[in-house]
Amino acid sequence: MSFELRPMTRGDIDAVHEIEHAIFPTPWSRQTFAAEVSIGETRAWLVAVDGDEVVGYGGIMVIGDEAHIMNLAVREDARSKGVGATMLESLLASAVEMGASRATLEVRESNSSAQELYRRFGLSSVGVRPGYYSDTREDAVIMWGDLLARDAASPEAGQELILAIESSCDETAAAVMRGGTELLSSVIASQVDFHARFGGVVPEIASRKHTEAIVAAVDEALEQAGVGFGDLDAIAVTYGPGLVGALVVGVAYAKGVALGTGLPLVGVNHLEGHIFANMLADPTVEPPLVALLVSGGHTSLVHMPEWGVYHTLGETLDDAAGEAFDKVAKALGLGYPGGPILSRLASEGNENAIDFPRAMMRSGNYAFSLSGLKTSVINHIRNAEQAGREVDVPDLAASFQAAVVDVQVSKAVRAAQECGVETFCLAGGVAANPSLREKLHEALADHGIRLSVPPLILCTDNAAMIAQAAHFRFMRGGFLGLDAEAIPNLRLDSEA
Amino acid sequence: MNQLTLAFDTATEECAIALGMVEPGVVGVIAERDLDAPRASLTRLLPTVAELLESANVAPGDLDAIVVGLGPGSFTGVRIGVSSAKGLAHALGVPLYGVSTLDAIARRFAHLDVLLGVVGDAMRGEVYPALFRCANGGCERLAPDTVSRPLSAAAAWATADEPPTILAGNGLRKHGDVFREALGPGATFAAEGLWTPTGRGLLRAYADDLAAGRVGDGDAGAVLPVYTRLSDAEETERDRANATADASAAQGSVPDSGVAGPEGGAL
């Protein structure tokens, strides 16, 4: 389940009344809701919607400097997913905007989970109204809270504190960020040594290492940021794409934290995270732009015409670029990961030495194919061995790398021109490749297009970029429920 | 010292959850949900936990401790339960304890006076066999968790001084015949409804561990699944090493982390 908030309108009243009727012994009437919604100025009413369906609602009345929380309800099947907390957060922010400095409410004495929620928002019990609820003669607990004290703790809207978790491949990462700009910590527990001797990421090992490392990674991120779980405003997690078993660990852990803290859970698309690494490194980067995502698991060209809107122009039909580097390095017995080793060797070789195929170079679309190139390189090595010739490794590395880079650069430039953008972002681990950076920079500069490349630490998988993308999703009010899944083939284009 | 304890297990296709008051050796179950959720534990576990807590009028912050089933079972299934429990315990700042999934199954037979053989499905044609002596409302485990071929597990039990008299566990679904043949009419198969772990069984196994002083220090980071097997890649690597000359070098049990590697698998 995912949900968003928006103001309540008269059109929502039937759905709202249905929930009201199902959960309260003495429900408000339709007329009362209609009257409340039409009052305007002193009122703020909102609904939480999952798609077209209303799953929760709440409202406040502000009189002078006091905000009265009049109603707050979440449909039974949508409970404990942060809907109530998110609505309350928004209502209290509105209250402050409307001039309130204090908030108050009455709640049934037996409703301990609601009281717990209000306490988390700084309201505390100041007394009871005996027999307040006429239906059951139950006491009402009166709660009060200081909104400005709360406000001082989180200075202004957009200053939310997010803990982000990333476990989509072979890095267990956690980061804490305030307001989408201030990175307070970024911890990466790399597993690369455990996968190295297999020449690639072993999914089962990745999943096991995430399970081992996740608590320590989060502890370190919180400690470096100097905050505790109680200071956070939201939990964010990568929920796809990636290795399903690896994603599952982060998603399950993050949902456990969300249940324990009652905080909203923000789901982040790993690829959106990679694009946002560019904004993290350089806040002036903004859409419209085209991004080339190249890593061990991805190779795609994405057009981002505006914030949150993505059109994947093309992607690899087989191997990812990083994967091709790893496989060629493995065939040459060079070790793992192959990218850094091959690119270092390539710098000493002649890229015109061997004419490897440039697959899809003139395909007219934005698709990539790298498995043919990989096979061709491996055949070249085998033929040389059979003929008793020694392979010139630097020449081979340089020629292979050039074949990869030429296709990427040519498609990148064409995509940027066709989309009419002036900014191009490089993202993902292969963005560390110096030859790709240089050639892309030169080719784009010829057309007056600016290239953004994040520092290496933000190119490879990390949670800082997930926190950055989560800030954007948080501000838009997009959240996941406790029933969230890990989605190994999550698409970027559905994010909007 | 009575502690409000939440327990769950997702090592098998059963999503087992219970809330109870626990003190050493004693459990008072407050609420339980045991649901058949094949391949759906990630989506079903925490919403069901939230619903159970709410129905019992308990806020997450009221919990004193979390208990999670460590397997052995489906690797991903176990990790869903363990990772969820880590997140919950970590955020709440309460201790997290692990119990064997097979111990939770055994607790369903604690009221009998029998020798119980639990046969967990280890997939790939293997089983997780475990023997328990059940009597007087308790269960004593007779061997640690392990993985083996059904035939050798059944043969070992058949030739034991005291073969099991009752069998349970989802491994019997595929390999029941092997055990029936090896153990003969002396061993009865429990009704299939009793082959799965329950939330109640987890709480009981934990309460017994408490009484015996067998629980860990409650560190959520230190609680890890029981795999009994290395990853396939490592198994292949080990088999290859064994096949070559110096076979003994790569031999050995699975490290605690379940991952062989530099520094003995420490990250």
Outline the structure in words.
The complex is a heterodimer of chains A (496) and B (267). With 496 residues, chain A is of the alpha/beta class. Chain A has three domains: 2-153, Gcn5-related N-acetyltransferase (GNAT) (Aminopeptidase), CATH 3.40.630; 161-274 and 462-480, Nucleotidyltransferase, domain 5; 286-453, Nucleotidyltransferase, domain 5 (2-Layer Sandwich). Chain A is 41% helix and 26% strand. Chain A has an eight-stranded mixed beta sheet with strand order 6-7-5-4-3-2-1-18, sandwiched between helices. In chain A, strands 10-9-8-11-12 form a five-stranded mixed beta sheet, sandwiched between helices. In chain A, strands 15-14-13-16-17 form a five-stranded mixed beta sheet, sandwiched between helices. In chain A, helix 10 packs parallel to helix 12. With 267 residues, chain B is α/β, with parallel strands linked by helices. Chain B folds into two domains: 3-102 and 197-211, Nucleotidyltransferase, domain 5 (2-Layer Sandwich); 110-194, 2-Layer Sandwich (Nucleotidyltransferase, domain 5), CATH 3.30.420.40. In chain B, 32% of the residues lie in helices and 25% in strands. Chain B has helices at 41-55, 75-92, 101-106, 150-158, 171-183, 199-211, 232-243; strands spanning 3-9, 14-23, 26-36, 65-69, 96-99, 114-123, 126-135, 138-141, 166-168, 188-189. In chain B, helix 1 (41-55) packs across helix 2 (75-92) and helix 4 (150-158) runs parallel beside helix 5 (171-183). Chain B is globular and about 50 Å long. The two termini of chain B are 36 Å apart. The model of chain B is unreliable at 247-252 and 261-267 (pLDDT under 50). Chains A and B meet through helix 4, helix 7 and helix 8 of A and helix 1, helix 2 and helix 7 of B.
